[in-house]
Specification:
5 helices, 0% strand, disordered N terminus, mainly alpha
Amino acid sequence: MARTKKDVTSAHEGLGVGAGEDPWTAEELAEVRAELESEQTRLQEEVDASEQDLVELARSYGDGAGDDQADAGAATWEREHELSLANNAKDLLEQTSRALARIDEGSYGECESCGQPIGKMRLQAFPRATLCMTCKQKQERR
């Protein structure tokens, strides 16, 4: 869905910021949105390519009949590696899509755990962040 400048302007007005930070400007939010949309496109292409690679690997290796142990091990490693890359790209794509949805609904910048502002500087550095630094540190200690 294409957004107009008016949509972006009104979307930034209610976004929380950290202590001592200036409110979001329409330009700053538009810049974050553009970065997320670009990343979303890149990740979708990466997911599509990885899934195609997995299909080709499955076709080329068949059931592994006639392979020696080294060939079978290499084929298994290659499939596992490609699957890991595809899953990582899918996770990042999901996070990116969620960040864009949060911008649209006006909850971008709000910690999903405690409800406090994540902080504009943190979001500009890592636009997919969903937790404030305090909650993120608590999560990492677990």
